[in-house]
Design a protein that fits this description.
alpha/beta, Alpha-D-Glucose-1,6-Bisphosphate, Chain A, domain 3, 19 helices, binds 2-acetamido-2-deoxy-6-O-phosphono-alpha-D-glucopyranose, binds zinc ion, isomerase, metal-binding
Length: about 525
């Protein structure tokens, strides 16, 4: 009874705004920041319950709207594993976020607690992080009040962080490891240095120019590079020079528009450049090919290219280990958005490729089925997962092989990669360090890396429709099952183009249907995209 009173009382502080319908969607709630206090408060309650359900393990609550505009904000939950909130709990998240009165809220919670047999006595623990958005401060207070309104639960403000830092810290905490932000940095520094130390022929490395999207990632990178030699990074768009978060900058902008972010131009022709998104869970690389292109078009190295580089490096180490290394099931997970040329490339390397629905939680799940599973979305979100079993095999081999032998070095590299790469979730900081060390290992420039394969020209458009749920796709989103007949019509268009491929899917984050098309020339891809868009209208 006191529990119910507690929630009734705090929920009066956070009335739900009129006329807003929220959905947890692909990766949490997002809306104009001014509308979100009641939502974040309620997600605070959910996080406490999630912690309680899992024996008071630590749960993470992140306040960010990622690559979206600065006036937006959002909230998402990290499960104790460091992965995304279990999808089983998403409907409950939707229900309570939309509950129209304190009474309805309390009754939904009561039913859920009974159904899931959650014991409220012990108290849960929730770690709260936020990105650099100013609206994050008051939203964080709302989250704290939500967490604490579940009696006995504690809220820990872990400050301004990247999304992947919070996921990493939650994962480490629940594994009983050191889990502060400085432990995160320490871990990156140690494993990076280890990989650098294992480079066979070390050349002088060239400068990298980083676009921090005027967000949290650039700031954290500044801290990180203070402790790193062997890498020369110039960071632009830190947000301190008056730039606005995600406005004309960042990984999402560069990947979608294929033009340079603000602060980059002719002076950077040929330089190796990279962009983070607003909460630093996405990474893309690019370079400006030549002055003759006007200095604003970029050659993009997207998530698919990063994935290909990682796959190549890991495969090389397994080959060095020899027959025993070949037993490792190395696989790749992509989405329908992956450039067809990248899929061909990893298949030719002899790797297994599987497809997942858009959204990190779907890729992550499929990558867990391999000994080493590499997943990436073309937009730059991805990571590498090592199975426990394979990792302990590697650690055992480190003892068997003699120190300094090729096999010992290869095994040590793989162990270091497993520490460097964030296994909770895709992480722009750790991904960047891994790209940098692999390029140094290979002795490659960004241009050389780009030549692994040539992207097929592609085009994306969005179509506004009265009801996007009318479009239903197969589980891999490569084909539309509904509206009836539309897939046949799409296939009819595809047939007209050399290397043509196209699909439609309802967005998980916006009220639109997305169209993707690729073909052998840019003109053909554009034209295929527009004819498919016509079919959707
Ligand atoms: C979310 C997803 C991203 C996905 C995008 C698709 C996470 C952390 N983020 O931003 O991976 O690519 O949604 O958006 O899962 P869409 O459904 O609107 O195309
Ligand atoms: Zn993001």
């Amino acid at each position: 009874e006191t529990q119910i009173a507690s929630i009734l009382k705090t929920s009066e502080l956070y009335p739900i705004p009129q006329s807003i319908k929220l959905s947890y969607g692909t990766a949490g709630f997002r809306a104009d920041a001014s509308l979100l206090e009641s939502t974040v408060y309620r997600v605070g309650i959910l996080s406490s319950l999630r912690s309680l359900k899992l024996n008071s393990s630590t749960v993470g609550l992140m306040i960010t709207a990622s690559h979206n505009k600065v006036s937006d904000n959002g909230v998402k939950v990290s499960d104790p594993s460091g992965g995304m909130l279990s999808q089983e709990w998403e409907p409950f998240a939707d229900q309570i976020a939309n509950a129209s009165s304190p009474k309805e809220l309390v009754s939904l919670i009561k039913d859920f607690v009974e159904k899931k047999e959650i014991a409220i006595e012990k108290g849960g623990e929730v770690w709260l992080g936020r990105d650099t958005r100013l609206s994050g401060e008051s939203l964080l207070r709302a989250a704290e009040i939500g967490v604490r309104s579940v009696l006995g639960s504690v809220a820990v403000d872990v400050g301004v962080l990247t999304t992947p830092q919070l996921h990493w810290m939650v994962r480490a905490k629940n594994k009983g490891l050191n889990a502060t932000e400085s432990d995160y940095f320490e871990n990156l520094i140690t494993s990076f240095k280890c990989l650098i130390g294992l480079i066979p022929v070390k050349l002088e490395s060239s400068k990298l120019v980083l676009d921090g999207a005027n967000g949290v990632g650039g700031l954290k990178m500044e801290v990180l590079i203070r402790s790193l030699s062997d890498i020369d990074v110039e960071i632009r768009n830190t947000g301190r020079d008056g730039g606005v978060l995600n406005e004309g900058v960042g990984a999402d902008f560069v990947q979608k528009e294929k033009v340079v972010p603000l602060g980059f131009g002719l002076k950077d022709v040929g330089m190796r450049c990279a962009s983070f998104d607003g909460d630093a869970d996405r990474l893309v690389y690019f370079y400006i090919p030549s002055e003759s292109c006007g200095g604003d078009k970029v050659e993009l190295l997207d998530g698919d290219k990063i994935l290909s580089l990682f796959a190549l490096f890991i495969k090389e180490q397994l080959n060095i280990i020899g027959d025993e290394g070949k037993k490792c099931r190395l696989g790749v997970v992509q989405t329908a958005y992956a450039n067809g040329a990248s899929t061909d490339y990893v298949k030719e390397m002899g790797l297994e490729v599987v497809f997942a629905k858009t959204g990190v939680k779907h890729l992550h799940e499929k990558a867990e089925e391999f000994d080493v599973g590499i997943y990436f979305e073309a937009n730059g979100h991805g990571t590498i997962l090592f199975s426990e079993c394979f990792l302990s095999w590697l650690v055992g081999k480190q003892k068997d092989y003699s120190e300094g032998s090729d096999k010992h070095n290869a095994v040590s590299r793989l162990v270091a990669v497993s520490n460097l790469i964030n296994q909770a979730v895709g992480d722009a900081l750790s991904g960047l360090l891994l790209v940098e060390v692999i390029l140094q290992h290979m002795g490659w420039s960004v241009q050389k890396w780009n030549e692994l394969y040539k992207d097929l020209p592609s085009k994306q458009v969005k179509v506004e429709v009265p009801d996007r749920t009318a479009v239903v796709t197969t589980s891999e989103e490569t084909e539309a099952l509904k509206p009836l007949g539309i897939q046949d019509a799409i296939n009819g268009e595809i047939k007209k183009y050399q290397r043509g491929r196209a699909f439609i899917r309802p967005s998980g984050t916006e009220d639109v249907v997305r169209v993707y098309a690729e073909a052998s020339t840019q003109e053909a891809a554009d034209s295929l995209a527009s004819s498919v868009a016509q079919l959707v209208k």
